[in-house]
Design brief:
Elements (H helix, E strand, L loop, with lengths): L2 H15 L12 H10 L5 H14 L3 H5 L3 H8 L5 H18 L8 H4 L7 H12 L8 H10 L7 H11 L5 H14 L18 H14 L1
Helix pairs in contact: 2-3, 2-8, 5-6, 9-11
Length: 219
Amino acid sequence: MRKTERASKIFAWFRENRPAVGSELNFDSPFHLLIAVILSAQCTDKRVNMHTPEIFARYAEPRHLAEASFEEVFGMIRSISYPNSKARHLIGMARMLTDEFGGVVPSEIDELMKLPGVGRKTANVVASIIYDKPVIAVDTHVFRVSHRLGLSDRSTPEGVEEDLTAMVEPNERPIAHHWLILHGRYTCTARNPRCSDCGLAPYCKYRHSAIIKNNSRNK
């Protein structure tokens, strides 16, 4: 099956079976989403959501977080992965938002990436969710699922993003990120993917290769 045909069938399945999905991070403003996404790097959304209610209550606006001490922020996120660097990033991000962006989360990818702790993936997540920008964020789940399904064979997140961007219509790129990340989180897991329960199995390159290998061993 050609990559374009496979992609068409895969995204048609998502469109029919997962019409309304979104981020599992809790947030109530663009600023708070930015905090949550920075905290979610190499950490589960579930754990981040356990901590953000207190963080959001204490830091309603960037200026509040900009004035916080490292010790204060670290104490609130110490059980989240990489608390030292994330505490510094959060304070630095809030200070830059306050000093250079008037306390407003920017909508452009390049401007978002100027903020401490914000790489391309984080910038794409925020821009797509808040501003409905036609971009696809590639995290470890999206990277893995894209390779297994046969949507991309590129070796970098940037390469996978380019392939996905080329095959997904602009208006569907924001939701395509959620389709792929949630599929990777609950079905196409890193270990023991649930292929027998997967509606995408008929189009999946990984599943097709596994069947061929199994048949070869049984001959």
